[in-house]
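Bug #77: duplicate submission created two jobs. Keeping one. Sequence:
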Amino acid sequence: MKCVWLLVLVLCCCLTVRSQQRGEATGSSNDSVKLIIDDSSKLITAKDNGAVFTNFIGAIRESGKVWLQWDVDSAEDGDYFVVQRSTDGVTFETIGAMRKTGNNSHYELTDIAPPNGTNLYRIKYTGQDGKFLYSKQVQLSLSGDIEFKFYPNPVDKLLIIRTEHTIDIQIVDGVGSIRLNKRLQPGIQVINASSLERGVYVLRVADKESNRIVSNQLLKN
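Kept job's structure:
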């Protein structure tokens, strides 16, 4: 009789151990599911790709064209850049593309026909392995011509400038030296030009409110 009870006790212990083993196996299976990572996306960080945008700037030039400039570090030959523009911050269209060549790390592109209003620009960098990343966005606004007038031209001693916005002006001589650099408030301003030699100059006007830069010829008697 004792042998029978001993046999029953052994069988119960075995069933308990198997039940515990099944429970551990089930737990391990669930844990492994949690560790599955979706790595299908090709959008990666600059650090992972090895290409870093060290600089990206833009400015509005004469005739409403937008000039873009960017610098990169650690890009490889065959990698390429796609410049994109958006008016709503959601949908971007491609306006230009170029490949990375040689040791060149400095790139420029001009948007010759940007629409009026707010424009967002970004650069999509794509490596040879197909992975890509985006630069920061640069925002520029085009709102028509800068509202300013200057006279007389040619100027003798005093140059009168009338502006609707705060503007920064520069008078640049024929060799590229800046002869005058001044910020003007809205209204009528008078500039003393008597120290300028006779000749041809460039009057450069920057309106930060509309992000526009305009250059005009200025003659000095």
